[in-house]
């Protein structure tokens, strides 16, 4: 579903308050724009980029982004995209679980070379098939653990477990990970 669980909204707000304000931010897998709205509220002057393959026709990009594109993280990594100026924070909000494990690890490493901070939020133990306007792009294909993604500069790891009564009472663990980038 092109949306994000609200379990870690307060945690992300604390990150923005503690490590911000950021002059620039990149919300990868931006979907309906929840994290972009939080970034914009924390600093109205922040240049906030939103990237989501759904913007290629399935989703309407929210207007609180400074710019949007239909890039996928796979494409950004494959083209060796590199920002000349370090980005204040790169956000992966409910996106890493849609990548193979090697892709999730590559995405976090790619972000470390492009940002001062990386914030990632994702579920494990939650099975999701094709749904919403993005169909197959919404399938969960891996369950990265925080330890697989935090090989460098870990600042904070958070886990929050819940039982989802709507989905056969699955136990879903949401992870929050804040890393220090290399820039």
Task: Explain what the structure shows.
This protein is of the alpha/beta class and 183 residues long. It is 23% helix and 28% strand. It contains five helices and seven strands, in the order αβαββαβαβαββ. The protein starts with 8 loop residues before the first helix and ends with a strand.
In short, what is this structure?
The chain has five helices and seven strands; from the N terminus they run αβαββαβαβαββ.
Characteristic key phrases:
alpha/beta, 7 strands, 23% helix, 28% strand
Helix content: 10-25%
Total count of strands: 7
* N-to-C series of helices and strands: HEHEEHEHEHEE
> Could you tell me the strand content as a percent range?
25-35%
Q: Describe the biggest sheet? A: 7 strands, mixed
Uncertain residue ranges: none
Provide the gyration radius in Å: 15 Å
Mean pLDDT equals: 80
Strand line-up of the largest beta sheet: 3-2-1-4-5-7-6
Counting DSSP H or I runs of 4 or more residues, the number of helices is 5
Query: How would you classify the helix and strand content by structural class?
Result: alpha/beta
N- to C-terminal separation?
33 Å
Overall geometry comes to globular
């Amino acid at each position: 579903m092109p949306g994000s669980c609200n379990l870690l909204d307060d945690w992300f707000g604390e990150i923005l308050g503690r490590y911000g304000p950021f002059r620039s931010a990149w919300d990868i897998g931006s979907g309906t724009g929840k994290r972009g709205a939080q970034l914009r509220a924390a600093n109205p002057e922040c240049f906030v980029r939103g990237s989501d393959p759904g913007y290629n026709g399935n989703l309407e990009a929210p207007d609180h982004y400074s710019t949007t594109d239909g890039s996928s993280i796979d494409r950004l990594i494959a083209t060796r995209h590199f920002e000349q100026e370090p980005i204040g924070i790169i956000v992966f909000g409910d996106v890493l679980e849609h990548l193979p494990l090697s892709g999730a690890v590559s995405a976090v490493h790619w972000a470390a070379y492009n940002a001062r901070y990386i914030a990632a939020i994702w579920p494990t133990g939650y099975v999701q098939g094709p749904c919403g306007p993005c169909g197959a792009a919404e399938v969960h294909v891996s369950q990265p653990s925080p330890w697989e993604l935090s090989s460098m500069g870990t600042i904070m790891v958070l886990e929050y477990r819940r039982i989802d009564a709507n989905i056969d009472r699955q136990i879903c663990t949401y992870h929050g990970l804040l890393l220090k980038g290399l820039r």
